[in-house]
Amino acid sequence: MTRLLILGSANADHVMNLEHLPSAGQTLMSRGYRLEHGGKGANQAVAAARLSKDETRVDFICHLGRDAIGQAMAQAWQQDGIMPYGITYTDDQPTGTAMIFVADKGENIIGVSAGANATLTPEALEAHLELIEKADYLLVQLETPAVTVLDALKHAKKHGVTTILNPAPAMVIGKDLFRLVDVITPNETEAEAITGIEVTDEQSARMAAQMLHQFGPQTVIITLGKQGALLSTKDYCALIPGVQVKAVDTVAAGDTFNGALMVALGEGKSVEEAVAFAHRAAAISVTRAGAQRAIPYRHELADI
């Protein structure tokens, strides 16, 4: 049995649909409002669970508030097949919250309040070290404390676990972390935040990828929206085109991509095949509104 582990955030997403994204000082009337289950870690865990085959186990290490939305999220995840053993409830903070504005063309801007995610400290992680030791792949992001992410990566590498870092949200982070990463998956903004290179096309993505390799990761995948993704390894560098669809909502696209990528790698697919698989899953997600409810199931990939 392949064991996939995600460590990361879980948020209640408050989503407003607008004609266009607001500029500074501008007030816009929303065309609709909804409450969604979100958070980068949770989205990626849901994607991994929905896209996995039956013989794959998916665990998720996260902190939730002891509130109604946290309990509802955990119940929904278990229905998708995520194991409950990494989920911890805290009385100190509410479940994390995100405020999301989505424009008619699918673009979005997001603000996040960490809430319970901030309580996932290195001390709290100690209760879940066995999950890391038994995993085949560990996928992390940056919506939980960076020091905890670093400790998780250290423990994973000590036990031979393949590590994947989705360096989102974009921020400047210590270079020590990158030496513990096998696969890194930034988008254009995140790649620029790390390397200082403005990524706008394939050529600039190649330059950023080479710098990222110098930091440590052997495999670099820079997602470029409609252009696809630049895949760079020791022996290979090419732009892998995405699947062209009409985008409705891009909120969970990157998370779907990352969860799908881990699934495909866990099934023994080549990294090129894994990126293509992830493109297909992400393409379906952007044709639907919402975060976790937009993430497809494995059988749906046959339709694209």
TrEMBL record:
Annotated residues for binding of substrate: N11, A12, D13, G39, K40, G41, A42, N43, E143, D255
Coiled coil regions in record: none
Names of the cofactor(s): Mg(2+)
Pathway listed: Carbohydrate metabolism; D-ribose degradation; D-ribose 5-phosphate from beta-D-ribopyranose: step 2/2
PROSITE patterns tied to this protein: PFKB_KINASES_2 (PS00584)
Any one Gene Ontology BP term: D-ribose catabolic process
E.C. numbers: 2.7.1.15
Active-site residues per Swiss-Prot or TrEMBL entry: D255 (proton acceptor)
A Gene Ontology molecular function term of the record: ribokinase activity
GO CC, one annotated term: cytosol
Superkingdom of the source species: Bacteria
Keywords: ATP-binding, Carbohydrate metabolism, Cytoplasm, Kinase, Magnesium, Metal-binding, Nucleotide-binding, Potassium, Transferase
Positions that bind K(+): D249, V251, S285, R288, G290
Carbohydrate kinase PfkB domain sequence ranges: 1-296
Activity-regulation annotation: Activated by a monovalent cation that binds near, but not in, the active site. The most likely occupant of the site in vivo is potassium. Ion binding induces a conformational change that may alter substrate affinity.
Alphabetized Gene3D superfamilies for the sequence: 3.40.1190.20
Subunit-structure text: Homodimer.
Similarity section: Belongs to the carbohydrate kinase pfkB family.
Reported function: Catalyzes the phosphorylation of ribose at O-5 in a reaction requiring ATP and magnesium. The resulting D-ribose-5-phosphate can then be used either for sythesis of nucleotides, histidine, and tryptophan, or as a component of the pentose phosphate pathway.
NCBIfam families: D_ribokin_bact (TIGR02152), PRK11142.1 (NF008353)
HAMAP family in alphabetical order: Ribokinase
Protein name in the entry: Ribokinase
Originating species: Shewanella loihica (strain ATCC BAA-1088 / PV-4)
